[in-house]
Amino acid sequence: MTVTEVYKAQELVYELKVGEIMTRRVLTVTPDMTMHQVKNLMRDNRISGLPVLVNEKLVGIVSIEDLIVTMERGELETSVSEHMTIGVYTIYEDESVIQALNKFTKTGVGRLPVVSRAGKLVGIITPDDITRGVLKALQVAYHEEEIRRYRASHLFQDIASDQTKLLLTYAVPPRDFNLAGRASSQLKLALGRLGVDPRIVRRVAIAAYEAEMNIVIHSTSGGHLCAEVTSERIVVQAVDQGPGIPDVQKALQPGYSTAPDWIREMGFGAGMGFTNIRNCVDEFSLESSLDKGTRLEAVVYLHLGEELPDEATPDR
Predict the structure, then answer these.
(1) Domain endpoint, select from 132, 165, 186
(2) What range does the domain containing 21 cover?
C-alpha cells in the first residue's frame, strides 16, 4: 500500500459509517434455544457470535467462547439464557468506523451488534468487516478517481468546437478571515480532478491564494476569483470592488503593503503577495482605479516550465 493509499485509508475510517460495511444478514437466537442449536448454527454458517433476541429486542449475545465452555462442561442441552452475555456493547449504524474501532479497543469484544436509533437490530460488525469494508471503499475510490481523471483529461478533446473553455468562479467576501483561502482551495481541488499536472496546480494555487487574500484584506465590498481553463493555459482573474491602489508600481515592489496594523498582527499583508504571484506565473497584469476597484490577471501555460522558486510561498 502506497503512502497516498495509507492516508486515504485513514480518512475512510472517519468518513465511512458502520451501516455501510456491517454484515446485514444476521442470524439470531432466542433465550430458550439450546446451546446444541447454537453449536449447529455456528458450525453451519461459520460464525462466532449470535445476538439473542426477545420480541426483536436485543437482550444478549452468545459467543463461540461461551459455546466452548458449555461443551467442556457437557451442557449442550442447557438453554442460551444460562450462558449468554447480557449488558451487550452495541453501536449505532450511523456512527463512524473510527468509533467502532475505538469501541473494539476499549471493550475487547470481537463483535458489535449494530442497532438503529430506534433500537432495532440491523446488523453486526467485526474487525474483519472493517478491514474488508475499508479495502473495498479504497478500491472504489481509486476507480472513481481514475474515471474522473480520465474524463477530465479528455474534456477538451471530446468536445467539438473551435475553442473550448471551462470557467470556474468563486465569490470572495471582504475581511472574512474564517473563509479566507476557501476559493483558492476549491480551485486547487478542481484542477487536480481535471488531471492538471500537480506542479502546474501548485503554481496556480499559490497565485490564486495570494490574489484571494488581497481581496479579503483590501476590498470593502468583496469580489470574485475565477479561472479560465483551456487546453493550453489557465488564466486566473481576481476582481474586487474597493478603494483601488493609489500607486500600482509601488504596490508591486517587494515588501510594500497598505494593510492596517491589525491585519499584519494576524500574520497577513506582509507585502509579498504580488511578488509571489509574479514568481510562479508565466504572465501577470494588474489594473486598478481609485474608488472603483482592482483587476488582477495571471496566466500559467499548461506546459512544464521552470521549477517554482523557493521564495514563492504564500504571503502569511
Answers:
(1) 132
(2) 3-132
In whole angstroms, what is the distance from residue 27 CA to residue 25 CA? 7
214: CATH: 3.30.565.10
Query: In this structure, what CATH number is given to the domain that contains residue 40?
Result: 3.10.580.10
Catalytic annotation, residues:
210, 214, 264
Contacts of 126 (CB under 8 A, 6+ apart): 23, 110, 111, 112
* pLDDT tens, residue order, the chain (316 aa): 554 555 566 677 778 899 998 999 899 999 999 999 999 999 999 888 899 999 888 999 999 999 999 999 999 999 999 999 998 899 999 998 889 999 999 998 888 999 998 888 999 999 999 888 888 877 766 666 665 555 555 566 666 677 778 899 999 988 787 778 889 999 998 888 887 888 899 999 999 998 998 888 878 788 999 999 988 899 999 998 878 777 778 777 776 565 555 454 544 444 577 888 988 899 999 988 887 888 999 999 987 554 444 444 454 4
Question: Domains in the chain: how many in total?
Answer: 2
Is 187 in the same domain as 291? Answer: yes
